[in-house]
């Protein structure tokens, strides 16, 4: 039995370019691979699955960069932030002008939905700038029941200032180019160790594990699985450690890699 793990954004979909679901050939290849007795897993910084992926029956999900893990519809890991952790973040973000978006299972908390950076974030991950409804815009730390926080900054200096004040207490994933931001979690797993936890729990040998990704938060995942496969649209640092670089997300990169590794036919 083999296990293949997929990042979402830039790997299965590309929201910025309007590609909100994998093409039919990719879906067909994934289902055929499952029918051979193998496992397909999502691993993402997202806390929930976008609509465009819900017609693919993935076996498991490593969400919130490893802090919310589900397999066969059973919740295995569910790491929530404490009130004290939320309060410390709010204090640090105020100091460094961070725009925070907290995400729970069913709720979101953000007091700056109309901020320019927050709008850019929506375009990047939703494919549009539509203002969300139902978000808690007035809150205090005791109101927040979150798994994750994405916080946006104007400058890299502000980002790293906040990072150094939080690094001992939280798990942090930094993006210091493009849209400057940091994903923040309760101290614990990251995406890579979350995937490792799952394949070890399932008794799958490391050499039978594969990961597809494109971003900096896929680096540890590539180090911990047997085979790391980067999309051609991936950041250069990930391509450098990848075993193989396939085509990009919009040109059936997953299909082409499956044909190479698993002899999947047209």
TrEMBL record:
SUPFAM superfamilies from the UniProt entry: HAD-like (SSF56784)
Record bears the keyword Transit peptide: no
InterPro entries named among the record's database cross-references: Cof (IPR000150), HAD-like_sf (IPR036412), HAD-SF_hydro_IIB (IPR006379), HAD_sf (IPR023214)
Coiled coil: none
Keywords: Hydrolase
GO terms of molecular function: hydrolase activity
Pfam family, one: Hydrolase_3
Keyword Hydrolase: yes
Protein name: Cof-type HAD-IIB family hydrolase
Lineage: Bacteria, Bacillati, Bacillota, Erysipelotrichia, Erysipelotrichales
């Amino acid at each position: 039995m083999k296990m293949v793990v997929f990042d979402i954004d830039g790997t299965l979909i590309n929201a910025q370019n309007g590609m909100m679901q994998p093409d039919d050939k990719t879906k067909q290849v994934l289902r055929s691979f499952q029918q051979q007795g193998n496992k397909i897993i999502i691993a993402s910084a997202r806390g929930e699955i976008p609509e465009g992926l819900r017609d693919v029956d993935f076996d498991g999900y490593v969400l919130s960069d490893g802090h919310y893990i589900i397999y066969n519809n059973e919740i295995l890991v569910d790491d929530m932030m404490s009130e004290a952790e939320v309060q410390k973040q709010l204090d640090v973000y105020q100091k460094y002008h961070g725009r925070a978006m907290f995400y729970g299972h069913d709720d979101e908390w953000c007091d700056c939905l109309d901020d320019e950076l927050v709008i850019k974030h929506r375009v990047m991950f939703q494919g549009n700038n539509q203002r969300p409804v139902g978000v808690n815009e007035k809150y205090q730390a005791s109101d927040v029941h979150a798994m994750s926080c994405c916080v946006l900054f104007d400058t890299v200096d502000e980002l790293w200032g906040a990072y150094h004040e939080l690094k001992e207490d939280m798990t942090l994933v930094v993006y210091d180019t493009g849209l400057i931001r940091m994903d923040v979690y309760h101290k614990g797993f990251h995406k890579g160790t979350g995937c490792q936890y799952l394949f070890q729990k399932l008794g799958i040998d490391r050499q039978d594990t594969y990961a597809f990704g494109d971003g900096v938060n896929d680096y540890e995942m590539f180090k911990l699985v047997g085979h790391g496969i980067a999309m051609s649209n991936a950041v250069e640092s990930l391509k450098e450690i990848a075993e193989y670089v396939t085509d990009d997300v919009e040109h059936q990169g997953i299909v082409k890699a499956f044909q190479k590794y698993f002899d999947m036919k047209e």
